[in-house]
Amino acid sequence: MTNPPNIVFIVADDLGFADLGCYGGRDAAFGAVSPNLDRMARDGMRFTQGYANSSVCSPTRFALITGRWQYRLRGAAEEPMRSDPLTRQTLGLPPDHPTLPSLLRAAGYRTALIGKWHLGFLPHFGPLKSGYEHFLGAMAGGLDYFTHLDSRGQHDLWDGESLLDDDSYLTDLFSRRAVQWIEHAAQPAQGHSTPGKPFLLSLHYTAPHWPWETREDRALAQSLGGQIYHMDGGNIETYRRMIHHMDEGIGQVMDALRRAGLDDNTLVIFTSDNGGERFSDNWPLVGGKMDLTEGGIRVPWIARWPRMIQPGTQTAQHCLSMDWMATILDAAGVSADPDYPLDGVSLLTVLRDATHHFERPMYWRMNHRSQRAYRSGDWKYLRVDDHDYLFNLAQDERERSNRAAREPDRLRHMRQAWEDWNADMPGIPSDATISPVYGLKDMPQR
Q1: Which letter does DSSP use for residue 269 in this model?
Q2: Predicted structure pTM score
Q3: Are 303 and 269 in contact (CB under 8 A)?
Q4: How far apart are CA 398 and CA 294, in angstroms?
């Protein structure tokens, strides 16, 4: 491609399907929760049937960066990857595995990750070992927004492979550094009047993941210490304000692209790593993080690229997180590594024409509660705790009308299709861990 696009790939953390205004979310007491993302949807394309590869964070991130079923890599069997010493030594994204940033970098792109990594710990793993030239952010799955302590009480804010001492509110820090990086990337190369290489900026926020802290809650952060699970805190208004802080930062990033004259040929993507958590709005879907019901895996998907995407468009194309890697490589004219063929499918034809549609079977499995799911067309096969279900999502996206007894042949065929797919995946290791943050002792079942 003679003029490949810049890529800004924005990922929220634990965002619910209906948390944004453009997905039916309600206003907060302070007003609109997500005006900038709502504008991005009006200016671009909104996906109504976009899914995360997993209902928990690190497995989805393996799929995002490799474009392949996360089950192919041992680290993704952790639900999610923990910060304990053994995990730090053995589990992560192998540095020799091709990734979205490594393939784009080899093709001449500049690459940066600002935000959450959660794919393994130094010294064995890390963003700079897997294709990114620049990294500022967190290695672990969660950290305090002010103290930047992880769940083990250890400092987890990094600039490259060195710890960074900066007590800024984390969401604002990521937004500010993203703007600065774009401004730097937009500078013309020496001796030229136009910007140089195209770039990939992965902006992976920790918001609105716990602890429940807005930028006004510095004192609260000091009182928490390392107890960042924050089981006794938070409320809907705090949660919405956290989303709003992220949305403000995304607006600043979009403004930076416009000021630099990069707006027209930059593909900006927004999604979430999994469904929402305890304060999220997933309506009309049931379930949330850690569940393979729709609320755990169907997430907001927005794409904006003025040169390619017609404004105000919407698509019901079925798609998974890993499809973004195939799409980006396609848009950039970059081939995947033949030794690691992609499982993701390019959506470039959909971005060009929102009416284009193709069949996209989608599969999931979770060690947690022995869950499995398979969606084909309008139908979804689901197993939870050894109970099999069958739903017509076109008629019942809330998954309340179980058609298994009424349509046993369809159930049998879909169950077998899942079994056939699963037979091609590595098995779940016996030592894989499941780490739910909370259970019935902490709050009633949703």
Answers
A1: E
A2: 0.97
A3: yes
A4: 7
